[in-house]
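Repro:
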Amino acid sequence: MAPMRLPDAASVLATLPLAPEGAAAPRGVALEGQASVGRYRILRTDEVDAKDDPLTADQRAAVMATGAAAATRSTGDSFAGTARRAAKLSISDAPVETFETVAAVVASLPPKRDMVEHDPRIIADDPDSERVAEEQRNVRLSAFLYAASRENDNDFHLIVGENPQGRQEVYMTMEVSGLPPAGAPAFARIKSARDAFKGFFGDKVPGASYDFYDPPIPILVEGSLFFDMSHAHGQSPGPPTLHSHMPVIWEFHPISSLEFEPGATS
Protein backbone atom coordinates (compact mmCIF):
# COMPACT_ATOMS: atom_id res chain seq x y z
CA MET A 1 0.00 0.00 0.00
CA ALA A 2 1.42 3.44 -0.95
CA PRO A 3 1.81 5.86 1.97
CA MET A 4 -0.39 8.94 2.02
CA ARG A 5 2.02 11.83 1.44
CA LEU A 6 1.63 14.89 3.62
CA PRO A 7 3.84 17.99 3.53
CA ASP A 8 6.73 18.37 5.95
CA ALA A 9 5.55 19.90 9.21
CA ALA A 10 7.95 22.83 8.75
CA SER A 11 6.08 23.89 5.59
CA VAL A 12 2.63 23.90 7.25
CA LEU A 13 1.69 27.47 8.19
CA ALA A 14 -1.86 26.82 9.38
CA THR A 15 -4.24 23.90 9.91
CA LEU A 16 -7.93 24.47 9.30
CA PRO A 17 -10.98 22.22 9.70
CA LEU A 18 -13.17 21.62 6.66
CA ALA A 19 -16.69 20.31 7.15
CA PRO A 20 -18.60 21.10 3.94
CA GLU A 21 -22.32 21.63 4.45
CA GLY A 22 -24.19 18.39 3.76
CA ALA A 23 -20.99 16.37 3.35
CA ALA A 24 -21.43 12.68 4.02
CA ALA A 25 -19.55 9.41 3.76
CA PRO A 26 -18.89 8.50 0.10
CA ARG A 27 -20.08 5.03 -0.84
CA GLY A 28 -17.33 2.49 -1.30
CA VAL A 29 -14.57 4.85 -0.15
CA ALA A 30 -13.68 4.09 3.45
CA LEU A 31 -10.73 6.31 4.30
CA GLU A 32 -8.68 5.01 7.20
CA GLY A 33 -8.03 7.72 9.75
CA GLN A 34 -11.02 9.88 8.80
CA ALA A 35 -12.20 10.88 12.24
CA SER A 36 -15.63 12.18 11.34
CA VAL A 37 -17.87 11.72 8.33
CA GLY A 38 -17.41 14.44 5.73
CA ARG A 39 -14.66 16.19 7.68
CA TYR A 40 -11.15 17.02 6.53
CA ARG A 41 -8.11 19.00 7.60
CA ILE A 42 -6.66 21.69 5.38
CA LEU A 43 -2.89 21.92 5.75
CA ARG A 44 -2.09 25.40 4.44
CA THR A 45 1.55 25.36 3.41
CA ASP A 46 4.27 27.54 1.92
CA GLU A 47 4.79 25.10 -0.99
CA VAL A 48 4.60 26.65 -4.46
CA ASP A 49 5.42 25.56 -8.01
CA ALA A 50 9.08 25.87 -8.96
CA LYS A 51 8.24 28.61 -11.51
CA ASP A 52 6.51 30.76 -8.88
CA ASP A 53 8.05 33.12 -6.36
CA PRO A 54 8.19 31.75 -2.82
CA LEU A 55 6.00 33.36 -0.20
CA THR A 56 7.61 36.40 1.37
CA ALA A 57 8.31 36.55 5.08
CA ASP A 58 5.33 38.89 5.47
CA GLN A 59 3.03 36.51 3.59
CA ARG A 60 4.14 33.58 5.71
CA ALA A 61 3.60 35.57 8.89
CA ALA A 62 0.11 36.65 7.78
CA VAL A 63 -0.97 33.08 6.99
CA MET A 64 0.37 31.87 10.33
CA ALA A 65 -1.35 34.68 12.23
CA THR A 66 -4.76 34.58 10.51
CA GLY A 67 -5.00 31.27 8.63
CA ALA A 68 -6.09 33.21 5.55
CA ALA A 69 -4.72 32.05 2.20
CA ALA A 70 -1.92 34.08 0.65
CA ALA A 71 -3.34 36.38 -2.02
CA THR A 72 -2.59 36.04 -5.73
CA ARG A 73 -1.91 39.02 -8.00
CA SER A 74 -5.26 38.63 -9.78
CA THR A 75 -8.63 38.35 -8.15
CA GLY A 76 -12.14 37.59 -9.35
CA ASP A 77 -13.36 34.73 -11.47
CA SER A 78 -12.44 35.74 -15.03
CA PHE A 79 -9.46 34.05 -16.67
CA ALA A 80 -6.55 36.50 -16.51
CA GLY A 81 -3.89 34.56 -18.43
CA THR A 82 -2.63 34.69 -22.01
CA ALA A 83 -0.65 31.47 -22.69
CA ARG A 84 -2.72 29.22 -25.00
CA ARG A 85 -5.83 31.06 -23.89
CA ALA A 86 -7.95 29.74 -26.79
CA ALA A 87 -7.19 26.11 -25.97
CA LYS A 88 -7.53 26.53 -22.21
CA LEU A 89 -10.98 28.09 -22.49
CA SER A 90 -12.38 25.53 -24.92
CA ILE A 91 -13.93 22.12 -24.31
CA SER A 92 -13.28 19.40 -26.87
CA ASP A 93 -16.21 17.99 -28.86
CA ALA A 94 -14.78 14.47 -28.56
CA PRO A 95 -16.73 11.70 -26.80
CA VAL A 96 -15.98 11.12 -23.13
CA GLU A 97 -13.52 8.35 -22.26
CA THR A 98 -13.90 6.84 -18.79
CA PHE A 99 -10.83 5.66 -16.89
CA GLU A 100 -10.45 3.79 -13.61
CA THR A 101 -7.25 5.49 -12.39
CA VAL A 102 -4.99 8.49 -12.93
CA ALA A 103 -2.22 6.05 -13.87
CA ALA A 104 -4.39 4.68 -16.69
CA VAL A 105 -4.96 8.21 -18.04
CA VAL A 106 -1.20 8.88 -17.91
CA ALA A 107 -0.49 5.62 -19.75
CA SER A 108 -2.82 6.70 -22.60
CA LEU A 109 -0.98 9.97 -23.31
CA PRO A 110 1.52 10.64 -26.11
CA PRO A 111 5.15 11.00 -24.98
CA LYS A 112 6.35 14.50 -24.21
CA ARG A 113 8.97 14.35 -27.00
CA ASP A 114 6.24 13.81 -29.60
CA MET A 115 4.38 16.90 -28.43
CA VAL A 116 7.42 19.17 -28.17
CA GLU A 117 8.43 18.19 -31.72
CA HIS A 118 4.86 18.48 -32.92
CA ASP A 119 4.27 18.26 -36.66
CA PRO A 120 3.80 20.56 -38.53
CA ARG A 121 5.14 22.95 -35.89
CA ILE A 122 5.93 23.26 -32.24
CA ILE A 123 2.75 24.07 -30.34
CA ALA A 124 2.52 27.84 -30.05
CA ASP A 125 2.12 29.37 -26.58
CA ASP A 126 0.34 32.51 -27.78
CA PRO A 127 -3.25 33.45 -26.79
CA ASP A 128 -4.74 32.24 -30.09
CA SER A 129 -3.18 28.74 -29.89
CA GLU A 130 -6.01 26.25 -30.42
CA ARG A 131 -6.16 22.61 -29.39
CA VAL A 132 -4.01 20.25 -31.44
CA ALA A 133 -5.34 16.86 -32.52
CA GLU A 134 -3.96 15.01 -29.47
CA GLU A 135 -5.86 17.41 -27.20
CA GLN A 136 -9.21 16.55 -28.74
CA ARG A 137 -10.06 14.16 -25.91
CA ASN A 138 -12.45 14.32 -22.96
CA VAL A 139 -11.76 12.15 -19.93
CA ARG A 140 -13.79 11.22 -16.86
CA LEU A 141 -12.58 9.40 -13.74
CA SER A 142 -13.13 8.96 -10.03
CA ALA A 143 -10.05 10.06 -8.10
CA PHE A 144 -8.87 11.98 -5.05
CA LEU A 145 -7.97 15.63 -4.53
CA TYR A 146 -4.67 15.84 -2.62
CA ALA A 147 -3.72 19.52 -2.92
CA ALA A 148 -4.74 22.75 -4.61
CA SER A 149 -3.58 26.33 -5.11
CA ARG A 150 -4.82 29.44 -6.89
CA GLU A 151 -2.77 30.76 -9.78
CA ASN A 152 -2.31 34.36 -10.83
CA ASP A 153 -4.49 33.79 -13.91
CA ASN A 154 -7.39 32.87 -11.54
CA ASP A 155 -7.24 29.14 -12.30
CA PHE A 156 -7.40 26.77 -9.35
CA HIS A 157 -4.58 24.25 -9.75
CA LEU A 158 -5.69 20.81 -8.48
CA ILE A 159 -3.32 17.92 -7.79
CA VAL A 160 -5.33 14.73 -8.28
CA GLY A 161 -4.20 11.20 -7.55
CA GLU A 162 -5.02 7.60 -6.77
CA ASN A 163 -6.96 6.17 -3.85
CA PRO A 164 -4.62 6.65 -0.85
CA GLN A 165 -5.32 3.06 0.19
CA GLY A 166 -4.13 1.74 -3.16
CA ARG A 167 -0.70 0.61 -4.30
CA GLN A 168 0.04 3.30 -6.89
CA GLU A 169 1.19 6.84 -6.27
CA VAL A 170 0.59 8.90 -9.39
CA TYR A 171 -0.65 12.48 -9.54
CA MET A 172 -1.80 14.75 -12.35
CA THR A 173 -2.71 18.42 -12.66
CA MET A 174 -6.33 19.38 -13.29
CA GLU A 175 -7.45 22.99 -13.62
CA VAL A 176 -10.63 24.65 -12.43
CA SER A 177 -10.37 27.39 -15.01
CA GLY A 178 -10.97 31.08 -14.69
CA LEU A 179 -14.07 32.02 -16.66
CA PRO A 180 -14.14 32.87 -20.37
CA PRO A 181 -16.37 35.71 -21.61
CA ALA A 182 -20.03 35.07 -20.82
CA GLY A 183 -20.90 34.44 -24.46
CA ALA A 184 -18.23 31.78 -24.99
CA PRO A 185 -19.45 28.25 -25.87
CA ALA A 186 -17.72 26.71 -22.83
CA PHE A 187 -18.81 29.37 -20.33
CA ALA A 188 -21.69 27.48 -18.67
CA ARG A 189 -19.79 24.25 -18.09
CA ILE A 190 -16.61 25.96 -16.88
CA LYS A 191 -18.68 28.12 -14.53
CA SER A 192 -20.53 25.07 -13.19
CA ALA A 193 -17.23 23.36 -12.32
CA ARG A 194 -15.89 26.54 -10.72
CA ASP A 195 -19.08 27.00 -8.70
CA ALA A 196 -18.81 23.40 -7.48
CA PHE A 197 -15.22 23.95 -6.33
CA LYS A 198 -15.88 27.26 -4.60
CA GLY A 199 -19.11 25.97 -3.10
CA PHE A 200 -17.38 22.98 -1.50
CA PHE A 201 -14.60 25.03 0.09
CA GLY A 202 -16.57 28.19 0.87
CA ASP A 203 -14.30 30.74 2.52
CA LYS A 204 -11.41 28.24 2.60
CA VAL A 205 -10.46 28.15 -1.07
CA PRO A 206 -6.68 27.95 -1.55
CA GLY A 207 -4.41 30.88 -2.33
CA ALA A 208 -0.96 31.43 -3.82
CA SER A 209 0.56 28.43 -2.01
CA TYR A 210 -0.68 24.86 -1.85
CA ASP A 211 -3.31 23.58 0.54
CA PHE A 212 -3.12 19.84 1.24
CA TYR A 213 -6.19 17.84 2.25
CA ASP A 214 -6.12 15.19 4.96
CA PRO A 215 -7.58 12.78 4.08
CA PRO A 216 -7.61 13.35 0.30
CA ILE A 217 -11.09 14.28 -0.94
CA PRO A 218 -12.90 11.88 -3.31
CA ILE A 219 -14.05 13.52 -6.54
CA LEU A 220 -15.64 12.65 -9.87
CA VAL A 221 -13.99 14.83 -12.50
CA GLU A 222 -14.32 15.33 -16.23
CA GLY A 223 -12.29 17.55 -18.51
CA SER A 224 -10.50 18.05 -21.80
CA LEU A 225 -6.87 16.97 -22.05
CA PHE A 226 -4.32 19.74 -22.51
CA PHE A 227 -0.55 19.75 -23.05
CA ASP A 228 1.03 22.53 -20.99
CA MET A 229 3.60 23.78 -23.49
CA SER A 230 4.77 26.47 -21.06
CA HIS A 231 6.30 23.67 -18.97
CA ALA A 232 7.79 21.69 -21.85
CA HIS A 233 11.24 22.95 -20.83
CA GLY A 234 12.47 23.43 -17.30
CA GLN A 235 10.80 22.45 -14.04
CA SER A 236 7.29 21.02 -14.34
CA PRO A 237 4.51 22.18 -11.98
CA GLY A 238 3.44 20.63 -8.71
CA PRO A 239 4.12 21.02 -4.98
CA PRO A 240 7.52 19.69 -3.86
CA THR A 241 5.91 17.03 -1.65
CA LEU A 242 4.18 15.37 -4.62
CA HIS A 243 6.20 16.56 -7.60
CA SER A 244 8.39 13.47 -7.99
CA HIS A 245 5.26 11.38 -8.59
CA MET A 246 3.82 13.68 -11.29
CA PRO A 247 5.19 12.09 -14.48
CA VAL A 248 3.51 14.28 -17.13
CA ILE A 249 2.78 17.92 -17.91
CA TRP A 250 -0.53 16.96 -19.45
CA GLU A 251 -3.57 18.33 -17.62
CA PHE A 252 -7.33 18.30 -17.55
CA HIS A 253 -7.82 21.90 -18.71
CA PRO A 254 -10.46 22.99 -18.36
CA ILE A 255 -12.37 20.80 -15.93
CA SER A 256 -15.87 20.66 -17.39
CA SER A 257 -17.62 18.78 -14.57
CA LEU A 258 -16.67 18.35 -10.91
CA GLU A 259 -18.44 16.49 -8.11
CA PHE A 260 -17.14 16.14 -4.57
CA GLU A 261 -17.78 12.98 -2.54
CA PRO A 262 -19.62 11.28 -5.41
CA GLY A 263 -22.30 8.85 -4.28
CA ALA A 264 -22.38 10.33 -0.78
CA THR A 265 -25.38 9.64 1.42
CA SER A 266 -26.70 12.28 3.78
